[in-house]
Amino acid sequence: MHTSRFSFSTLRGNSQYCHLTEWCMRSLLGVALIFFWLPTSAAQTTKSGDIVGAVVDRKLEKPLVSHLVTLTIHNAEGTETEQVLTDENGNYRFEGLPLDPTVHYTVSTVYEDTDYTEADVVLSTWAPNITLDFNIGAFTDDKSQIRIKTHSFIIGPPPEDHAPDGAVTIIEAVGIENRSELPFQMKRGAEKIGLHLTVPKGVEAFQAHSPAALTMDFATNEVILKTPLPPGEAQFGYTYIFHVERDNLNLSRHLDFDTVQFMFFIPEGIGLVPNAKFFGAPSREQIHNNIYLIYQSPAGKVFEAGTTIDLALNVHMGATGGPVSGQNSNLGQLIFIAVAAALTGGFFVAALFKLRAANNSTTSDTDDTSTSPEPADAGWLRKLNPDDLEHTRVARLEFITHLDDKYERQEISERVYKRLRREQTERLTTLLEQQKRGNNA
Fold this sequence. Notes:
Elements: H1 22-34, E1 48-57, E2 62-63, E3 68-75, E4 78-85, E5 91-98, E6 104-111, E7 114-121, E8 129-131, E9 134-136, E10 146-156, E11 167-178, E12 186-188, E13 191-193, E14 195-198, E15 204-210, E16 215-217, E17 222-225, E18 232-243, E19 248-250, E20 253-254, E21 258-259, E22 262-267, E23 272-274, E24 283-287, E25 290-296, E26 308-309, E27 312-315, H2 331-343, H3 378-381, H4 386-408, H5 414-440
Parallel strand pairs: 1-8, 1-9, 10-21, 10-22
Antiparallel strand pairs: 1-2, 1-5, 3-4, 3-6, 6-7, 10-11, 11-18, 12-13, 14-17, 15-18, 16-17, 19-27, 20-26, 22-25, 23-27, 24-25
Helix pairs in contact: 1-2, 4-5
């Protein structure tokens, strides 16, 4: 196999983890402002709360009686579990739970070898009682209900210890929508999975970011979600190493689902240009210290499932004007670009990936050489004083309460409510961790 001598050596940057850039912040500003529109209210006096719900078999449209439901309690000391059986009406109840925003709950059950889970549940004096119903056993396999809203590719340098053999790092950010009211599940041979996405042959060092349960089947070149895809919108994110071969970086693949838009983020100075003419001329954006050329497929064009899409990038050295002085790049920054790319799908509250550190680094929070991605909000929270952190904590809790009230009055859909609430509990966790670090300083 011929391997091009194409190299990313001019883009190798330091390992400093980059803060959320102004480019990303412009997209997220609308979300951030919500927290400060809500008035401060006095805490209620309730000392404990409940998590309740029902388990219903939607195939037979009847409640599941004596069905096991598990509550996992996550706190600073670790985790513990409680279990109950549903009653004759399929209802379950966990009572007397502490209203402590530092404690998170996961509620789960298993039916016909399928896991059903609601994670990141937080109880507070503003929201002491949460209802979580499990509608299980009913799925759709109608692929026309699945739509890829955006599929973005962020090109970056390979790991610093990788041989200079034409390798690049690829981050794919996929905004996917299940337009059905039921979870989506499909067959893959004899196996039932949520869905799969095809990637080109030759992928190396695959790493899932969101959800972390994504796996890679190297025999079939597929990224697989083994659990059903719930209704609503979600973001998938994963990273891998790929190679430029014969002056071509060929990311073409068979489309599993209808796709609305493709995007490429290519560092300026690296002569990679999409082969397909429908991408047209790129826009030019400065994202942190780097200049990126952004190629987009035309609005209104839908790429149909079952077709093969030309996603090859041709090497044209000099086509983009040469390297930019002082330009650098790293995985943390590229992930932020992927987050911003996912935002273009239109579902702003679900854009942030549940990113986890790519390694087991033990460096401190103040070590600027760490390459582990930070939680969402961590950068700007470090700039706030203790009073501002407390005001932000109250605002987040009140926003969660506001969501609960809206959902109870049926003013927002269940799918929107769940995703908004999950995002806010994640952000609240990040804030509480920052407060804890400040108290221990």
